[in-house]
Amino acid sequence: MLKYDHGHVIGLKDGILLMYVSFTKKSNMKTGLVLSGGGFRGIAHIGVIKALEEHDIYPDYIAGTSAGAIVGALYAGGCGWEEILDFLKTVQIFSFSNYASKKPGFVDPEKFYDRFLKFFPKDDFGSLKTPLYIATTNILDGSLKVFHRGELIRPILASAAFPGLFAPVKIEKDYYVDGGILNNFPSDLIKMYCDKIIGVYVNPYEKVKIDGLKHSYSVLERAFKIMMAKESLAKFQDCDFVINPKELSNYSTFALKDVDAIFNFGYQATVKELRNTDLKKSESELKVQLETMKGAPIAAREGE
Fold first, then answer.
1. Phi, psi of 199 (to 5 degrees)
2. Catalytic site residue 252?
3. Which of 18, 20, 90, 152 is surrounded by the fewest CB atoms within 10 Å?
4. Looking at 66, 127, 187, 232, which residue is catalytic?
């Protein structure tokens, strides 16, 4: 086990990275949900959400990168886990109609704009039910760009634009790609607002054998995982526990198969952890939060 000077203790059990810490009950406790990138492994995020809801745990803040930005945005917009799962099952990413013409990539993220517009008819962060922070990478100057206000759909598309495969997304005068390049586990974007944070990391990092690197794409994906791992793992200490299903190591970033299995890995890992964790709010706090989620969007509540 690893110990930190602020009292957290980290352990590994059943593929779940745990952090145990004593909490003092207090009113208006704020819970954050951090969703990492990971391509189609991000389907596991939806399973996590289902398990959390079954235990009456709903986030007050959400931060997401790449696949986590997609799931996080849909959830923040009021979609249930079933609707999110159905949407991701039906999206045909590699359809010829999504081909990027005269752009540096094979797939044009802009082709998915109308699909997301059905969920976000008012294309603005202020239309969401839950505050959302999205990490992207400015491909021109190499800086991290965090989107929290204003236009919503293109930041979602940009955060999930895996470089080389997806063309960069233009937002105002700049071009953005996958936020996972610089911040694949964006706990730092919401930790100042939260009393407790639940992290979901869908990029299991462990030693592999050379037989598993048979293709150039496998090597590229492995290099991408290594690049993200150090920075991401260091931020696990921001969370009270991190769901990190070990079974996901058997799935590549764009393995368009076994969606239900990936969903269940996230669900089962969360259920196991919640047996020993108390993140529930009081009945009065839960009632207020559910009414807020079903009611007015953020912009209306802020008087904008």
1. -110, 145
2. no
3. 90
4. 66
